[in-house]
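In the current project phase, work has continued on tokenised descriptions of protein folds. One protein thus recorded appears below exactly as we store it.

——
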Amino acid sequence: MIEIRPSEDAEDVARDRILALLDSHAEAMGKSFDTEKVFYEAHEDGQYLGGLSARFALDLKWVFVELLAVAQPGRGKGIGGQLMARMEEEARVRGMRGIWLDTYSFQAPEFYKRLGFSEFGRIDGYPEDGARHFLLKHL
């Protein structure tokens, strides 16, 4: 009988086991989910002001922006735009076809739209009083 239960392993071990199955299937189809994580940080006078984490999908030629955050002292200084511009520059150098990300209505959908991103999907009511936005930018 099949038993469904919570994993008893550490998060990274359980996740790696799932990824191994996905990778095996993708490779059988002639695809690869190999990614390279890239991190950029903003500092001023020794103070950390924010950062960006992205995954460059090497074979798929797309970048997924996982995280972007700017600390309160850095807001309004263009740091978010500079972090995105640095990542986009790297994406272009590597021949990526596009960048995608998701954000919430209470975060920054308009910020990304000003950077040339367009919305390709949205979940209304997530959170209850807002939406989760999915955006992309072709390079």
Summary: The beta strands are 35-44, 47-57, 62-70, 98-104, 118-124, 131-138.
